[in-house]
Amino acid sequence: MKKYIFLILCFVLVLSCNDEAYDNDSTGDSSPALGASDYSPSGNNAYWIYDVAVSSAVVTEMNFAATDSVYVSSINQNSFLLEANDDGIANGSMNIVLTNGSLSKTSTTLVFDGGIDLPDNLADLGFTQDLSIEGMTLLDLDASNNQELYNEERNFSENIDLDGLAVPINISSRISTTKINFHENKALNGTNYTNVFEGEFSLNIEILGTFSVAGISQTIPILDEQDVLKTSYYYVENIGLVRAETVQGISLSAQLTTLLSLSGVDLDIPTNVSIENIEELVDFALSD
After folding, report:
1. Per the structure, how many domains does the chain have?
2. What is the pLDDT of residue 195?
3. What are phi and psi for residue 16, nearest 5 degrees?
4. In angstroms, what is the C-alpha Rg of the chain?
5. Cβ neighbours, 10 Å, residue 254
6. What per-residue confidence (pLDDT) applies to 271?
């Protein structure tokens, strides 16, 4: 039972994987006459360097600091690819997403097409779902504040193989992006910027599992509907992504913890997990 719950937690965190005060903030509902290319430069040899800080009060082994070097690897008309570091794997949550697909620009939008890689151990257990994302708008200069830019809901079932036993689960997910604000002036990472687009990426999940207890089958929530990942991201004119603040978290349902307790199962993993991932731009270079 504990192995099952632990693997579900890993799956959710893979799906999802020190805030400073911001002063001198002037906001507006609409952006000036700028284009999406101003916010997502994609010239040959362009790169961005980020300091990444990951912290968790519960999962202390996740506490680390790293550096991400993100660069344009290929360009095809209005589309381009980003890669990170020598091994191709980013440490920052937002850059993990951005480097796992392609980005395309119109005059006013920046759109992501890509996917989320499934780890080998979960694939071996029987997870077969396509975790692709198509047409996810990250930036829309014509959108109003708090306007949703993208929304996709999915529902699917899996049978997880645990030591030869098929355990059914049902997963409902919702991926969305929203324009939060457009700031004429915004202090980020200790620097004052002008014309800042603030957006939010969210992954909401509900998981139901069917357990057999004393010969009786019960379907209960493993995770009640909740945001397991939420990223606030900031794009700046003539630079690109300057900052991203991500919180990944899960909270096991009260029904599940009660069932485990009544079944005499000592759950030696945390029932509530929160991991913060901060990406701060420290250097960049743009090239045509």
Report:
1. 1
2. 96
3. -85, -45
4. 20
5. 12
6. 82
Which tokens hold the place of 158? 């899996």
218 bridge partner residues:
211
C-alpha neighbours within 13 Å on the C-beta side of residue 149:
28
User: In whole angstroms, how far apart are CA 208 and each of 37, 109, 189, 223, 251?
Assistant: 42, 36, 40, 7, 13
- Split at pLDDT 50, 70, 90, the class of 180 is very high
How many other C-beta atoms are found inside a 10 Å radius of the C-beta of residue 18?
7
Cα angle for residues 15, 17, 23 (degrees, 5° grid): 125
Task: Give the CA angle between residues 100, 105, 109 to the nearest 5°.
Answer: 105
Coil, strand, or helix at residue 114? strand
Alpha-carbon gap, residue 234 to 183, rounded angstroms? 10
Can you give the pTM of this predicted structure?
0.86
pLDDT in tens, 230-258: 999 999 999 999 999 999 888 888 988 88
Are residues 236 and 39 in contact, defined by beta-carbon separation less than 8 angstroms?
yes
Say how many residues make up the chain: 288
Q: Which domain holds residue 188?
A: 2-285
User: Mean pLDDT over residues 145-172, rounded?
Assistant: 84
